[in-house]
Inverse folding.
């Protein structure tokens, strides 16, 4: 479960921002918000006539805990980097595209890791990540799901080569998760 955009801004301060108003709309340019830690850069436009908006969000070295639920804060640590382009109308999001990555990431205490069919699951209690990245798309629509957030091309790789995860996850309007993740383990562990 993700937090609202406003909760992401807690304990932050505006470093700089330029707001331009005209009879056509409002533009926010060169905005920099200092996070604790990190920085969020924002460019946005609001069309007064159509009641539509666009925004370009770019986060550098943000705390991943700002966007994940409390139970996941115990399991995932790291610095958040990424860019998200959003459009909307009348307060709602119409489209979203972008990418996210977590650097200096650590996965800890994931229940399924202790269930792995390997002789020694100790290395899977805490996994340092070499890569943790994905692409984001909204809305994703198919025969079975409508207006879902798609986290696609998920690529997680442990620094020591002990775990690789690829796949995609969908978050529906009801906040239910679905998708497919492929988990790779080294052959030497499976044979023990």
């Amino acid at each position: 479960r993700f937090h609202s955009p406003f909760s992401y801004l807690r304990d932050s301060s505006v470093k700089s921002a330029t707001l331009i108003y005209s009879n056509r709309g409002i533009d926010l340019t060169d905005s920099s918000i200092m996070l604790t830690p990190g920085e969020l850069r924002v460019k946005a436009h609001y069309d007064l006539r159509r009641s539509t908006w666009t925004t370009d969000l770019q986060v550098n070295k943000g705390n991943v805990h700002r966007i994940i639920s409390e139970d996941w804060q115990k399991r995932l640590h790291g610095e958040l980097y990424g860019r998200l382009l959003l459009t909307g109308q009348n307060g709602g999001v119409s489209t979203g595209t972008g990418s996210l990555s977590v650097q200096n990431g650590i996965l800890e205490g994931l229940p399924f890791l202790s269930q792995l069919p390997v002789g020694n699951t100790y290395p899977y209690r805490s996994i340092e990540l070499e890569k943790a990245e994905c692409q984001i798309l909204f809305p994703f629509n198919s025969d079975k799901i409508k207006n879902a957030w798609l986290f696609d091309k998920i690529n997680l790789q442990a620094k020591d080569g002990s775990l690789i995860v690829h796949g995609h996850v969908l978050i529906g309007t009801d906040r239910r998760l679905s998708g497919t993740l492929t988990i790779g383990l080294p052959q030497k562990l499976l044979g023990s």
